[in-house]
Each structure stands twice: as structure tokens, then as C-alpha cells.
Amino acid sequence: MTISADITRQRELIDAAIAVNEAPTLAEAFQVVADACLGLVGADRLSVVVWNDDLSGGAVRAAAGEAVEALGYQMPADRQSFEALETGEPVVGTPLTEGIPRELHAGIGRMSRIVRVPLATANCRATLNASWARPLDPVELAQAAELLRTLTRLTSLAERSLRENERQNLDFVLDGVADGVILSSGDSVLLNDAARGILGVGPDEPFRVADFNPRTLDGTPFELVPGAMLGHDTVESGEASRFRVRATARDGRELVLDGSIAPSAGGAVIVFRDVTDEHRENILNRQTLEAVFDALPTAISVAEPSRRIVKVNRAFSRLVGRAPEEIIGLSPPFPWWEEDEPVTDWIGGERIERVFRLPDGRPQPVEITRVVVPGDDGEPGLFLALIRDTSEGRRLQQQLVQSGKLAAIGELAAGVAHEINNPLFAILGLTEFLLKEAEAGSKSRQRLELIQQTGLEIKEIVRALLDFARENAEERHVVALEEVVQSTVDLVRRTNAHKGVELLDSYDHSGALVTASPNQLKQIFLNLIANARQAMPNGGTVKVDVRVDGDWVVASVCDDGPGIDPEVLERIFEPFFTTKRHNGGTGLGLSVSLGIAEAHGGSLTGSSEPGDGATFTLRLPRTPLEEVFS
């Protein structure tokens, strides 16, 4: 080979290298190599066959010279190509026609020698096949094989060039994406500008798996495959998934990232955005709503469509007398329901009245407003129960009823008193006139004195009734409690039909003052004394005592009856609870009395030992004298 020929060949090699480097795809790079090799080695046929992964066959992807007729054809596996791919060295042999399409037999059959050279490619297994019709001596074959081997290295250059172009194009596209993007493949990690900005990684700084430090929202670390990015589960399963994790930026900022993971060739594509502020705001909103929900005075329960309770507030827990952990997860019938409580369908906005039963057996009247919260599909998603305690309202209502009754009794008493006073005045006047004429010590005078004494008793009863009628139940003023109690006891004594009951009253004569409605206080003592008398149908003693105890004025009513059983004592202040229903008892007397006491800032309690009578104690705040004259 002359110097000029050698220079020409080198120039052709350089031109081929440039052409291969500029090829936009690997297939076109194969064609450039085929065209260059045809002239450089003087071959008649030149083709590039890309083989299947299992080497069971291959397809002609590039061709030059007479081999153009084979372009696109499927070629059978052969031992020579397999040997070249396995050893990475050129293999010289004779052309084979067995198994190839019949229309290619003539062209391949007239070739005398063939050299098969493996192509240096990373993404496929291919061979470059050069054939000559003329005989070649061993030296020529060796030179051709070496030249072909040199040329096949151009494919590796082409692949690197293509990868670099693809990388540049990919970088350009990714850097235009607002979301962070991480491409991971084995040890290789590619970040776009947005990802570097979010994670605080500089443009030229390397990025390692440990830098990402992903954790679940509750702080549990993600398990990472060594050398792989977050998303190894996606890589292994081949299924895309979403995530929300905590991460630490390069500058120490704690982040919350929301995104998705999708598998890619040998790795994963991770797209994410910074939702730290959004997450913090959501947490704050949720905590605020939780605090408001728990602080609402209205009892609220939240149930799933299956009616299983999933959430309750503090007011609900207090209302039913159970801790939240005892409530959440329950389904109807609930333990606070009355027996045989019907499980009704929910109707939005419907209000119903029910009586709950507390753990200690006490009833709890409530009003329930039921609200249906629709889901995304329009079907019920949640059921809310807004529950209001109606016991106080019922007690006040009954108190108003009792006050109305007392007002009516007062009006009646006033009318009756006026009607009685007129004939009584005549009776007493005539009696006094007759007494002047009656002889001292005579039977007639004794009878007239009895009539006069009885008339005066009637006059006192009428006066007490008039005093009772003149007071307004709603009007409060400063009054001495012992005076109220004494006037009530006097009234009971004068109207007491149970002569077998002895009524005793005692006072410390301190003149302790309270701010109250005298009429309502009288109602309390009338109820307590009446209950004590009813507890002793065969007679006994009722003791009323008024004393000062520090800042309180205390009045007690005691009897020496049979006492009250403990289970009854626990419920005596419940509205409508009574053990005397067969005798006309309503169960409202003590309930109303308790309401009056509490409305005055005081308390009413009961105590008893079975067989040893019962004691009811009223405590009212004492009104200091300086407040009276201020």
C-alpha cells in the first residue's frame, strides 16, 4: 500500500468517524459504518445484523453493495456469528445459505469468503458482515478483518455521541419543568434545575442518595436499596405510585415533598414538588378544626355510612359519661341507648328527642339533630349527630310550670282569703259582743271563747295565705332565711292534716341574710316537709334547723322515718323519678327544688341511712351586710 493510498484511507476513516458522530440515531450510524466499510475493504456485500437477546435469529438493519437486497430480512442463527459475539474477535469463514430466505441464495451463494466482526454497542448485540466474491489470501483477509474491527469501534463513538445529545436534549426539557425531577438508574442520578433548587443542591454539586434522606410524615425512614434512589419498590414491582415524604435540603431546611414514582429502564423517574408551606398550613388548619371541634359545647359524633362511630368531641364524651376510646369504633345499638331503641334511617336535618342512659343508670334527656355529609359520588359519606342536653331546659320548664301553679294557688288563696275574711269578721264581732253578755264561768261563755279562738286561728291562716299570695316568685331581694323558714313552718302547722307528725324548728337567731325569692324558697321547704310527712304515715317527728356555716346559710329538714335505699337516693333528684306514683307523685318536687337552689347559687343534697330517717340540706350563699347597705 502506497503512502498516498494510506493517507486516502486515513482521510476516509476520519470522514467515516465524523459521519458516524453526526448520525442522529444508532440505526443511521450502522448504515454509515456499512457504507464506509464497503469501499475501504473492497467488499462486494456488507451488512449489519442485530441479533435477538437469545441469539435465536437476527434482522438486517443496515446494508451496502449487493447486500442491500437483504435489508430488513430475518436471518437464522449461525455458529460463526455466535463465536464472534462471544469472543469479541473477528471470525473468517464461508457464507452460509442454510435457513436464509430463498431469494437471497443467489447473491450470498456466489461469495467465496465472509468476515464477521462484533459491533461495540451497549444497547444491542450486532455483527458487521463483509463478503467477497473473489478469493482472498490470508494476509488480505487479516488486513480486512483488522480494518473492519477498527471501523466497528465507531459505533461506540456513535452511542456516546447519541447519549450525550440525548442527555443535552433531556437536560433542556427537564430544566423547563417547574416540578423537581430526579432520574435514577443504578448509581447514576440526574436532577433538573427545579429539583436542585428545592433540595438546595448547587448546579455543579454532586448528589448522593444519602442527601435526600426521605422519611414518612411520622418520621419513619424509607428503606433504600444501596446505590438506588427512593422508588426501589416501584423499580422492583414495575408499578407507579404516589408519595408524600419529609426530606432534608442540603442547607438543612426540613421539607415536605409530594410526588410520584414511575419505573424506567434500570431505575425510576421521580417527579415531586415542595408542599412544605401547604402541608404546614393543612396541619394548622386541621389542628384548629380539631381544637374547635373538641371545644364546641354541643356534643357531636361522626359516623361512617356503616354507622360505626369514628370521632366524637369532648362534649359528647361528657354527655354519655364515657371516654373517647370507649366510644370510637362502636356501632348501633350503643350502650347509652335505652333498651329496644330503634335504629332509624338518617334524614338530614331531622330532630328527634331521646333519653340516654348514663353508666350509673341515670337518664339523660337529649335532642338529636342528624346531618348527612355527602361524599364525592353524592352518596352519604359521613353521618353527624349534634346532640343537645335538654335536662336543664326540662327542669326550667317544670320549674316555670310549678311557679305558674304557685301563682295560680296564690291568686286563688287571695280570693278565698277575702271571701273568708268578710264572714269571719262578722263571726268574731258577734262572738265578742256575746262574750260581754255571757256569765263568767258558764258553759255558754266557754263555748263562745272556743268559737273566738277557732276564728282567730282561721284569721291567722288567712293572713298567712295572703302573705304567700302577695310574693312574686321571680322577684328576688335580701331576706333573712330563718324568717322565710319560720313563716313556712307556721303555715304548715296551721294547715297540717296529719296530726300524728310533730314539726319542730330551731334557729341560731343570727338573722343571716340571703338574696332570693322568698316564695321559691318556701316552695323548697313545703316540698321537703311534705316529703318528710309522707315518709311517716304512722306518725313521727320532722325537724327543721337553720344555721350559719361560714359564708353559707344552711337549712336542713330531717325526719325519723324508714330512710331511703341507696339506689333510690342516687336518683331522687331526677325529673319524673318517684316511688309514690300510685299515690299521685309526679317526681318533680325534688327536681324543681334542686333547680331553685342551683338558680340561687346554692345546692340541695340528700343523705340517709336505711332505718334511720333522711336529711335534706339546703345551702345558700350568705349576703354580707355591707352589700345590703352599699
Short description:
This protein has 630 residues and is α+β, with helices and mostly antiparallel strands.
Please provide a written account of the structure.
The chain has 630 residues and is α+β, with helices and mostly antiparallel strands. The protein has 18 helices and 23 strands. A six-stranded antiparallel sheet has the order 3-2-1-6-5-4, with helices on both faces. Strand 10 (254-264) and strand 11 form a beta hairpin. Helix 12 (391-437) packs antiparallel against helix 13 (443-470) and helix 14 packs across helix 15. The longest helix is centred in the middle third of the chain and has 47 residues, at 391-437. It starts with a helix and ends with a helix.
Features of this protein?
disordered N terminus, 18 helices, 5-stranded antiparallel sheet, alpha+beta, 6-stranded antiparallel sheet, 630 residues
How does the SSE layout of this entry go?
Elements: H1 3-22, H2 26-41, E1 45-51, E2 57-65, E3 74-76, H3 79-87, E4 91-93, H4 105-109, E5 113-118, E6 125-132, H5 138-175, E7 180-185, E8 188-191, H6 193-199, H7 209-212, H8 232-237, E9 241-248, E10 254-264, E11 267-274, H9 276-295, E12 299-303, E13 309-312, H10 314-320, H11 324-327, E14 350-357, E15 363-374, E16 380-389, H12 391-437, H13 443-470, E17 477-480, H14 481-495, E18 501-507, E19 513-516, H15 518-534, E20 540-549, E21 552-559, H16 566-569, H17 589-599, E22 603-608, E23 614-621, H18 625-628
Parallel strand pairs: 18-20
Antiparallel strand pairs: 1-2, 1-6, 2-3, 4-5, 5-6, 7-8, 7-11, 9-10, 10-11, 12-13, 12-16, 14-15, 15-16, 17-19, 20-21, 21-23, 22-23
